Each structure stands twice: as structure tokens, then as C-alpha cells.
Amino acid sequence: TRWCPMSQPALGFQQIIYGNGTDVGTVIALHCPDKHKLIGDSVKCVKDANGTYWAGNTYCKPLSYNETHGFQLAVLLSIVSSAIILLMSMVFITRCLVNCIEKSKRKEMHRLVKLSKYVVSSGFSMSGYMG
């Protein structure tokens, strides 16, 4: 015989890559539905001394929990990490601003103390200005 009997896969659909679907030399690929992965590559109708048969083995295997949810977990962890980094950055910037304000206040206080010492040492009096 010059052809291979056609059979339908348990899951997925077949696509003829080469040939007419049953003749010797025909190559068929399998495409799997969502949440399944393809095991194998393609099958080919071959002929030898024993007859014709499909060489190769392809089938669709359901994805494991880790394969289907691993990406979602990675995205969630990335979002959490980004939120932590953002929070830490905000704390750092806030602390820097507080330090800057405190330093400015200390400088102003030091300037006022120097000014008051100068006023006291020079004998300057505000009494003439008070009316």
C-alpha cells in the first residue's frame, strides 16, 4: 500500500505540512489548544519492507499548574517589588527634604543668635523706636 491510514488526535488539530494527508511522504504537524503543550514535532508517512506507517509521535499534554500560573506569579512579584522600591524611594526623598529643612532652620537660628549677640554688644536699643 502507498498510503497511511489517517487518524484524529485526542486533542488539538492537524495541519498538513507536505503531501496530501495520506500518501507516503506526507508530513503532518499537530497544533494544541490553549493550556496544552505540544510533545513531539510532526509525523511523516513512511514506507518500509513491513508496509506504511506514521513515523514520529506527537500529542498535546496539559500544562502543569506551575507552567500556567508561573508567569502570573512572576508578574505579581514584580509589581510588589516595584511598589516596595517606590515606597523606599519616597521615604528616602522625604527624609532628605526634612534634613534640608532642619539644616536651613539651624542656619537661620544661628544667624539670629549672632545678630542678637551683635545687637547686645553694640548697645543698640529699640526703645527709641517704640514710640
Strand order of the largest sheet: 1-2-4-5
Categorize the overall geometry. Answer: rod-shaped
Strand proportion, as a percent range, falls in 15-25%
Give the count of structural domains: 2
What integer is the average pLDDT? 85
Order of helices and strands: EEEEEEH
Termini separation = 127 Å
User: Helix count?
Assistant: 1
Pairing-aware structural class of the strands and helices?
alpha+beta
What is the share of helical residues? 40-55%
> Which runs of at least 5 residues are low in confidence (pLDDT < 50)?
none
Describe the protein in words.
There is one protein chain. With 131 residues, this protein is an alpha+beta fold. It folds into 2 domains: 50 residues, Ribbon (Complement Module, domain 1); 59 residues. It is 44% helix and 24% strand. The strands form 2 sheets. It has a 4-stranded antiparallel β-sheet, with no helix packed on it. Strands 3-6 form a two-stranded antiparallel sheet. A hairpin with an 8-residue loop joins strand 1 and strand 2. The longest helix is centred in the C-terminal third of the chain and has 58 residues. The chain starts with 12 loop residues before the first strand and ends in a 9-residue tail after the last helix. The mean pLDDT is 85.
List the helices and strands and how they pair.
Blueprint: E1 13-18, E2 27-31, E3 36-39, E4 42-48, E5 51-55, E6 59-62, H1 65-122
Keywords: Membrane, Transmembrane, Transmembrane helix
Organism: Neogobius melanostomus
InterPro entries: SUSD3
